[in-house]
Write a structure and sequence with these properties.
Elements lengths: L1 H29 L3 H35 L6 E6 L8 H9 L8 E5 L2 H9 L4 E5 L1
Antiparallel strand pairs: 1-2, 1-3
C-alpha cells in the first residue's frame, strides 16, 4: 500500500513538472521578441544614465557663468572635526560629497542649496566658516 502511494505521488509530481515545462515553452515560443526588447531597453538605460551627467555639467556651467557675470559666489570653509566612522551611510556619503576625506581636513565649497543641505545633515561632524 505504501509503495502504491509512492508511485502515485511520483506520477503526480512528474505530471505537474511536465505541465509547468509545457507552459514555460508556450510562453517562450510566444515571446521570441523579448530578448531583442531587453537589449533595446539596455541601450536606452545606458543613454539615460549618461544624460544626468550632461545635465549636471550644464548646471555647473550656468552657475559658473552667473558667478563670472558679476555675482560673487559665497564660499564656505568646512573642516571635519569628528570621525565619520560608525556613522550612517547617508552621512558618510554627504561627507564624501563635500570633498572631505580625513580628520581635520579643510575644504572650500560654494554656498549652494545642495551643499547647504549636506552640511545641515552632518553639521555635528563639521566646523563651518563663511569666507
Amino acid at each position: 500500500m505504501v509503495e502504491a502511494e509512492k508511485t502515485v505521488n511520483k506520477a503526480a509530481r512528474k505530471s505537474v513538472e511536465k505541465a509547468a515545462t509545457n507552459a514555460v515553452n508556450k510562453v517562450a515560443a510566444q515571446s521570441v521578441e523579448k530578448p531583442v526588447k531587453k537589449v533595446a531597453k539596455a541601450h536606452v538605460k545606458k543613454a539615460a544614465a549618461a544624460a544626468p551627467e550632461k545635465k549636471v555639467a550644464k548646471a555647473a556651467e550656468k552657475k559658473a557663468a552667473k558667478t563670472s557675470a558679476g555675482e560673487s559666489a559665497k564660499l564656505l570653509s568646512l573642516t571635519l572635526i569628528r570621525s565619520r566612522h560608525g556613522r550612517l551611510a547617508a552621512h558618510k556619503a554627504c561627507i564624501a560629497g563635500l570633498g572631505l576625506r580625513k580628520m581635520h581636513q579643510t575644504v572650500q565649497v560654494i554656498d549652494t542649496p545642495e551643499n547647504r543641505g549636506m552640511i545641515n545633515k552632518v553639521h555635528y561632524l563639521l566646523n563651518v566658516e563663511e569666507l
